[in-house]
Amino acid sequence: MSGVNGAARSNQLSLDRDLVSPFTALQAMAESSRCLYCYEAACVTACPTAIDIPGFIRKIGTGNVKGAARTILDANIMGGTCARACPTEVLCEQACVRNKAEAEPVLIGRLQRYATDVLFKAGVQPFTRQAPTGKHVAVVGGGPAGLACAHRLALLGHEVTVFEARTKAGGLNEYGLAAYKMVDDFAQREVDFILSLGGITVKTGVALGRDVTLAQLRQDHDAVFLGLGLAGINTLGVAGEDLAGVADAVDVIAALRQRAAPPVALAGPLAGRRVVVIGGGNTAVDAAIQSLCAGAAEVTMAYRRGTAEMGATGHEQDLARTQGVVLRTWLAPREILGTGGAVSGIVLERMAMDAGRLVGTGETVTIPCDVVLKAVGQKLAPGGLDGLALAGGRIQVDETLATSLAGVYAGGDCIKSGEDLTVQSVADGKAAAFAIDVYLKA
Amino acid sequence: MADLRGTIAGIKSPNPFWLASAPPTDKEYNIVRAFKAGWGGVVWKTLGEDPPVVNVSSRYGALLDSNRTMIGFNNIELITDRPLEVNLREIAAVKKAWPDRAVVVSLMAVMTEEAWAGLARRVEPTGADGLELNFGCPHGMCERGMGSAIGQVPEMVEQVTRWVKNATRLPVIVKLTPNITNVLWSAEAAKRGGADAVSLINTINSIASVDLDAMAPTPTVGGKGTHGGYCGPAVKPIALNMVAEIARNPDTRGLPISGIGGIGTWRDAAEFLALGCGSVQVCTAAMTYGFRIVEDMIDGLSAWMDEKGYRTLADFQGRAVPNVVNWNDLNMNFVTKARIDKDLCIDCGRCHIACEDTSHQAIRILPGDGKRLFEVVDEECVGCNLCAHVCPVPDCITMHEQETGRPYLTWPEHPQNPARVQPPKAAE
């Protein structure tokens, strides 16, 4: 059944093929020549990590490709992941002045991938650590924020221990991004590249609040950085959430990324099943498309507001549509129906805006389905945050990313710094490292 | 439809587009393909006395831009390496089959009358329309006392021209080398020798690039390289200047000119014609794209002439010559300023940084609505055009003449000129 459905889709994505094919050298050369080398370029301003984009593109054009990669990685050590996963259509490429000239930006993301791929393939470590400072920093969380922070601290001469709750470092790069954006085990190759600098020890399987306390970390280290991400999952709060076949989208994505058995809640693989994804963000889109990749018979995304309010960019929405996901808007979940303990459908209420408020209309729609994936946002996991001031459900930080506890800094999704994107987390981690460096040298 | 027929030194052709003496004109096969494509004439690749020369392997170097567009081209190939008899037979066959096209034959020989006159006499029976004397090749042949070794000595240019003119009734075009201090000296020498026309420029002495792995110039022949002849789009400005100098020089004014140097489009050709050329010769563009480029050269020139109301080439030939003057004849009171169209502007900032870093700090940035606003500071703008040249958007930055009410004033008349020879003229 799934095979028929799958074969009918053209340009069908798969879990192990690139969503966007990498540039050849010739394509990179041609595309680099389109860059106007703008003065105080808008693309740089639009990048949370402020990569010198005209600078690195010019280097590609002159044949100094490894130099281009160094320029990228010096600003953003996860430039390789960002080249694959960044929503460039709302960041650098949206700002490109070529949009005004000819409605087609320089394809910055693909050029960035080209340059970083060349460097990775060459196996070159372009950075050298400064002289040892004798200081030791604990980084909690081996995701983009934590690793970016650890890398910069190591560069500055500090020793770093990264504590990671899961079995692999990489965070959402490893467990959360869509498979077709991170083929060929790129997340781990990037982690290996970062660690090859030296000065960073990763301890996996160590969770804050379970295996180690913040107080202990503060006692044992000169400073602490928290890059915890958002490990807590929001629930729908409707009847039937305990039925077999109702699962958290992030768990399903993580299992697909790890080629592991589906989460218990899913009660079996996705192949042949009818899936409804609840949510409108990038996680919802990733879950929907990857469900199709995994052989789901049909996939519907249901979001309680309109497409304009979706967290997923227009580009991601279009990708979902072209892959065969049915996008349904103004529908909020009200009840998950079951037969024999397993999901048989979902009842949704049609929503509307009334005087600026989202309200139910009373009208309901029932979609028959076998699987409901919840992608309605993540939140800070409660454990291990003793003594930390929170703000808006996340860790409170000042402009230097210092928390309410002396010597403890935080960044990434666990603070509210911008979009919940890899690139923002890397920017936070780098900024926190500089702040910690100042703190340690004070 | 404009009439593109032209005559230069008595040689007629249906259009002014000739292929220059070069690899594309080495043999009948290529030239027939060129004529089928529509070329108006050819200058057959240079003939020499037997035995033929021997060429090396690896012959061309190139200067490419980032899109791999050929900007400049360089070669170390010598004259034809085929027996004289073979070339003469093919020339006769081509001329017979294509009587309406110009077939000019390029010659090169050592510095003796016997050699030059002998070659000229051998060509005459082929029915060729004229001869071109190759005084230009800056590589290889010059080391044997030929090519630019002759072209660089005006007395030798004059002498050889006279020898050939005395030996044949065919029109003689003298091809000039740019590898000299002043092209007028050799042009005037050619005229004194009786040349019916000059053609220029031959290639410029050059090293195309250095292979940084082999640490040798390109093209590299077994680890070594030599200077070669440079041509292609990059040499066009040099050629235009030399053509203009000959066209406006009192001693050579009126001497027919066949323009050569970086011509690849109808527009390039029109520029050479506007500076007085009667035909143009093309090589690099054909070697880059093939002979079919002549289709747009003919079509584009014709369409432009129709637009401008020029019926024949003569209607605009030489029209730009009177406007080529010495710097000392320029109007010091002319003032032009840049204007930036804020609607066309795409906010790249190139005009600002070019002016700020390297010129007159005359473009300031103001906060705009959704994009930066670039504004010319008139008090600082000297009208240099740099911003207009670096702007990626056509017509976004334009230059505008400012009304000053002041008279035409040249430097020799300028009050700030310490060597001023006459008082400024009063405005009329």
Automatic annotation (TrEMBL), chain A:
SUPFAM superfamilies: alpha-helical ferredoxin (SSF46548), Nucleotide-binding domain (SSF51971)
Annotated protein name in UniProt: Dihydropyrimidine dehydrogenase
Annotated 4Fe-4S ferredoxin-type domain residues: 26-56
Gene3D superfamilies xref list: Alpha-helical ferredoxin, FAD/NAD(P)-binding domain
GO terms for MF: iron-sulfur cluster binding; oxidoreductase activity
PANTHER family assigned to the protein according to its UniProt record, in alphabetical order: GLUTAMATE SYNTHASE [NADPH] SMALL CHAIN, GLUTAMATE SYNTHASE [NADPH] SMALL CHAIN-RELATED
InterPro entries for the chain: 4Fe4S_Fe-S-bd, DPD_II, FAD/NAD-bd_sf, FAD/NAD-binding_dom, Helical_ferredxn
Automatic annotation (TrEMBL), chain B:
Matching InterPro entries: 4Fe4S_Fe-S-bd (IPR017896), 4Fe4S_Fe_S_CS (IPR017900), Aldolase_TIM (IPR013785), Dihydroorotate_DH_cat (IPR005720)
Keyword tags: Iron, Iron-sulfur, Metal-binding, Oxidoreductase
UniProt-listed Enzyme Commission number(s): 1.3.1.1
MF terms (GO), sorted A to Z: dihydropyrimidine dehydrogenase (NAD+) activity; iron-sulfur cluster binding; metal ion binding
Domain of life: Bacteria
Family membership: Belongs to the dihydropyrimidine dehydrogenase family.
Function in brief: Involved in pyrimidine base degradation. Catalyzes physiologically the reduction of uracil to 5,6-dihydrouracil (DHU) by using NADH as a specific cosubstrate. It also catalyzes the reverse reaction and the reduction of thymine to 5,6-dihydrothymine (DHT).
Protein's name according to its UniProt entry: dihydrouracil dehydrogenase (NAD(+))
